[in-house]
Design brief:
3-stranded mixed beta sheet, single chain, about 130 residues, DNA-binding transcription factor activity, Arc Repressor Mutant, subunit A, binds zinc ion, 5 helices, alpha+beta, Dna Ligase, domain 1, metal-binding, 3-stranded antiparallel beta sheet, globular
Amino acid sequence: MINYTDELRRHNLKATPQRLAISNALHSCGHINIDTLYELMLKKFASISLATIYKNVHLMLENSYIQEVKIPQSKTVYELTKTYHSHLVCTKCGEVEDIKLNMKPILSEVNSNSSFEISKTDVVLSGTCKNCQ
Ligand SMILES: [Zn+2]
Ligand SMILES: [Zn+2]
């Protein structure tokens, strides 16, 4: 288990046992939705409420300790903050994978074909993962 105490403090978050457990869950699962996170947390903290999980997740998001990935037609997942990357989502099992994509060609194409100013470049591509093919 990685010690996330310093990481939490670096994001101005007190390292409570719940937050450390959330950190470890995110680390081992990579991407996790709130319901799965809740299930995992219940195994460690029998009396924890969904509201407490939401509160912690919200605060962690606010302090950029974690980031959310909005999945079309599915639940939002959360991950520990990493450098910019895109996502691949399996439509059969819901598996979410990270992928580094070069956005420069896309942005320059947008630039030459439209006068739109891009502020966010979140990319989620759907398909079938290796296990589900
Ligand atoms: Zn799959
Ligand atoms: Zn990711």
